[in-house]
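Re: [help] complex structure
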Amino acid sequence: RAAAGEEAQIPRWVRINTIKTTVEEQLDTTFKGYEQVTTIDEVLAPSTNPAGGKQRRILIDPHIPNLVAITQGIDLSKTEAYSSGKIIFQDKASCFPAYLLDPLPEDGDVVDGCAAPGNKTTHLAAICHARRPDFETQESQKIFAFEKDKRRSQTLTKMVKIAGSQGWTRVGFGQDFCQVDPTGEQFAKVGALLLDPSCSGSGIVGRDTMPELHVPEGSPAAGSNKKVDKGKGKAPQINEDKGKKRKLDANEAAQSSVMIDDEGNETVVNSEKDLEARLQALAGFQLKILLHALTFPAAKKLTYSTCSIHSQENEHVVMKVLESEIATRRGWRIMKRSEQVRGMRDWPVRGLKESCGGDTEVADACIRSYKGDGYGVMGFFVAGFVRDGSKDEEM
Ligand code: SAM
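Output below.
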C-alpha cells in the first residue's frame, strides 16, 4: 500500500509541553542517550548499530519551538513523560495553527472553535503560559474550547487535564460553535481564534483512498500519483479510529474507494463527481463556521486549518472569506507571509497560486504541507487572517 511507504517517511513528532517541563529536561530524561541530529533524513535513516539494537535519534525542529522528531518505532507511550502530559504526540504540521496564531497577552481571550481531541487547544495553552507564567492564577487570559461531539468532548476534557491546562481552559462540552453567540458578555475579550474544522482528512498519513483525486495540480506530489488497486488484494480495514472495523464487501471494494474524514467517518466515493460533491459539502460547512468566527466583536486574528490537501477546502475557502461581505465590512484580510511568526515565514511550502485566482500574495500567505514531500509531515493547510481594527462598526 502507498500508505506504508508514507508512514516510513514520517518520524515520531513529539511536542514538549512547556506547561509541565522543558526541552532541556526532556533531553536529560526521556531522551537521554539519543543521538542529536540536524535533518529529517538522519532521523529516518535505517539503524547502523552493529549490535543490532535500534538507534535512537532526535532532531530539534527548526521551525516550531519545543517540538522534536524522534526515530520511528520507539514506544514512548509507557514513559512517565507521556502519561503525565509532559510530552504530547503531535505531527509537526498540526502544530502550525497555534504557533501561527501566536496569541499574545494583549490579544486577550482565545477561542478554539473545533477543539477535540485537544492537541491545538493544549498547544495554545502552552504558548499563552510561556508568555505569562502567572496566567493560571491571574485568570487574565482564558481559552474557550468548543466541541460539538459529546464523546470527543470527553477526550478533550481529559487531554486538557493531562496537559495541565484545565485552570484556564473552559471546555464548551458538546457545544456547537455555530450556535455560540459571539456578542455574549463572556466573549467580549476574545481577540484570537483558532478554527480547525472537520475536513476530508486527505492529508492524514495512511488515508490513501483515491489518491489520484486527492493531489491537486501544481502540488509537489502531483505526478507521483498511483491509481488505487480497486480489484485485487484484501479489502481495506476501515474506520479504525471509531473501533468499528468493517470490511467492504467484495463488490463495494471492487467498485469504490472509501474516503475517511479526519474523525474516522467513511464515505464511499465512486467517482470524481462523488468526491467533488463531498468536498463542496465540507467546504460549505468550513466557510459557514469561519464566517461565524469573524463576527466576534474584539477579534483581531484567526487561523484556519485543515488536514486536507484539496484546494476546495483550503485556498478556495480562504478566497471566499476574503470576498465575503463580513470580511469587507469588518476589515478582515489575509495575514501576509511577512507578518507571520518566523518559523512559519521560513516554511517553504506555500499555497497554490492557481487556486487563489492567481493572487501571489494570498498564495504565499497560505501554508501547506504534503505527506511524502521530504519534510516528514502529514498533508496540511493553514492560513491566518488579521483585522486591523479600523472598522469597529456595530455588529
Ligand atoms: N483541533 C483538534 C486537534 O488538533 O486536536 C482537531 C479538530 S477535528 C479536525 C474537528 C473537530 O471539530 C471534531 O472533533 C468535530 O467533532 C468538531 N466539530 C465539527 N463541527 C463542529 C461545530 N459546529 N462546533 C464545534 N465543534 C465541531
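The pocket of S-adenosylmethionine is lined by residues 94, 114-120, 146-149, 152, 176-178, 196-198, 262-263, 289 (CB under 6 Å).
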